[in-house]
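Take a record:
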Amino acid sequence: MNENKIGEGNKMPKKAGFCKHCNTFVWITENGDCEHGHNANSITEIHIPSNSDFTLRIPTNYAGGHPEAPNQLGSEFTELILDSSILALQDAHNILFEIPLKDITDVRVETQGQIESRVTLSRMLAVGIFAFGMKKREDNRIWFLLVSFKNKLGETSTVIFQSYRSQEMANHITANRYKLLTETAKSR
């Protein structure tokens, strides 16, 4: 999927919804149609995004970690959406959760092997020397995006996404977060 910059140079619609023909979330025009020309009867799940300046949408596999969606979603289609103030995960029908960029504390990209090495250390502490006998799989070609943030309870949570565009998304999150925090500091 290519980078999706919506509404460059145009007045941007205020509402988004799921288009049955496009099979994804789209912007809704002023007359209620899909931005790609499908009529209003094709649109469901209409909502007003917290910020209508979406800059990047990438397909991803959600591996878990968010308190509002703690379990891995499996093979269900999910898309990671980044705008100037929010990181969101949506499935084919709904926004599953949003993370304000101001609440993000760390963004990194790691291989499956790097993640498993930390898990192996934890496993060793939990089960002792027998941890080395437990089977583990190593594949350093699979990349994961790890985003740590302060959740609504003030605790740190880390969400994990698998995508071939993990590094690109990490770069965009870092740049958008820096811009948001810089603008906030200037306005004080």
Strands lie at 15-19, 24-28, 43-47, 56-64, 78-82, 86-90, 95-100, 104-111, 143-150, 156-162. The chain has two domains: 1-48, 55-188. Residues 1-13 have pLDDT under 50 and may be disordered.
